[in-house]
Amino acid sequence: MDGTVNSLEAVLPDYSNNSAFDEVARPPARRIKQIWAVGGGKGGVGKSLIASSLAISASRLGNSVVVVDLDLGGANLHTALGLDLPKNTLSDFFSDRVPSLEACRVQTGIQHLDIISGAQDAIGVANVSDVDKTRLLTALNSLDTDYLIFDLGAGTTFNTIDFFLSSNVGIITLLPEPTSIENAYRFIKSAYFRHLRNDPKLLEVQALIDVAMDSRNERNIRTPSDLFREVSQSNPEAAVRLKRSIACFNPKLIVNQARTQSDIDVGYSVKTVCKKYFGIEMDYLGYLDYDSSVWQAIRRKRPMLLEFPNSRLVMNIDRMVQQIFKRYNNVKK
To answer: CA–CA distance from 214 to each of 53, 166, 217, 222, 254 (Å)?
Structure first.
């Protein structure tokens, strides 16, 4: 495992001493206080468990929370909350069988916490059009709630990445295993380039960004440093804007199912690699221990935080939520 991280680090350029990654001004706050998104490159890393647990923990502090299942190809967030599939889901929203997204909002039985369940029956809904994606994001932003928490699907489709980038606090979860680490890296890389590609201040260099997104491009742009070099040569002013845009990409990380100190340290290693390779500050929120009570709660169709409220895992979840509130409550999109 350390070899997987170290092998990446060995071939990646070092940005750790680059002080030019300056923050830029954020636009005014919107109606919803914040959106949190839980994603990752691989299935089975605990995204639904973490998203539902963060939502319960945040709601228990008196915040109005709506947790949204955006795993459009395999929605099961309702199960993590101990619920049957609601009558109305995102399938009904996309098919215009409900008057508004609000009709898909269902109380969970937990005070202050509602759920919007993912699509179930619409063929091709896992690959919704850009129009439907924009319509959904607009509707989500109009909901009357303090916090939205997205449970994202696995993989690096544009829809999944765009949902991740629409959040104020984007959280990547991984297991301390080589395949999970590699898939998390791919997710970060995809989100990184998609973030740059969508920045309206970088219109002049979008063609180069598109080239960089193709790992086999003929211009030999393989890394962010290659991209920056190309932009600096062709447009020095755009290179400054590129650095500022990079500074605004700040994903967070949770290591799930940690058993040993080496597993815990994977988070710090990934953080270091991201700084060297991408020039970004990835915040390591912490780890969740491997805990057999998780599958026990799932079998009983009960949320982990309610079934085992005194477990170490639950205490770590509560600590992470407090940390997010303390560090990022003023972060706006």
So the answer is: 36, 23, 5, 8, 28
